[in-house]
Amino acid sequence: MYSHGPQVTKCEEIPVEFPYQYQPGQPGLEYVMVPRPVSEPPGATGSGKLHNKVAIITGGDSGIGRAVAYLFAREGADIAVVYLNEHADAIETQERIQQMGRRCLTIAGDIGDETFCKEAVAHTLSRFGRVDILINNAAELLYEKDITDLSSEQLLRIFQTNIFSCFYFTKAVLPYMQPGSAIINTSSLAADKGYSGMASYSASKGAVSALTRSLAVSLADRGIRVNAVAPGRTWTPLIPSSLPPEYYMFYGSFHNSGPIKRAAQPYEIAPIYLYLASEDSRFVIGQTIHVNGGEYLGL
Fold this sequence. Notes:
34% helix, Rossmann fold, alpha/beta, 7 helices, 299 residues, 12% strand
């Protein structure tokens, strides 16, 4: 019913121009975006790095979360996709994972609600019997043209989704995680580089990075690795559902996207999550790894 997005591997084939498009609600729908985000390269094969692991991925229905779900499934993991209400995207993600021969559970609800987070973990355990990897990825972005227009309710909502949910899911999964398990949070370049109109989002993502460092220290003696990924500009549903037309010059212009001169596609971000989820990163804790095409370097 819903077609998968274009699958490309060559850099010159990756979309670099994104026409302005508006979606009225967050976190946005991937299947209506033009061009579609690229979630996986064609012909890729797994190497079993996550064989029979179970991963919970918030925001796993689309964008970076979907790309991570596809890569993890290709590496042998079963996936619990947690999402808000983007049912069409979630169905597409589930079908693709099942095509890879892995199991996929979809769980819809508000991650800003601690009760739902507990229920999502319980549902995953009931279906799969274990949780090895937690990806706290889902987020909201509120564009504030003038910070004086930001209400207390809006600020609370951003923090509930972007940082409170990390606490809620971490608390819920910890009793069931074994040594070797991994928690990976999604921070952002915005946490370190200020952007006009993104104060609440940037602040919440800065909190994610700080939480990551603290949890890494406190959970190290339990053998649970905690790290974060900080993507730069990436073409996901968060963009058309969050940003006004003037930001499309920022996201769509070939000349204003850092040294690589384009925004990232989700599948280019996903391998960092695989590295942090696998035994390859056994000696890595408390890190926030930037994946931003060199933009943070100011080049």
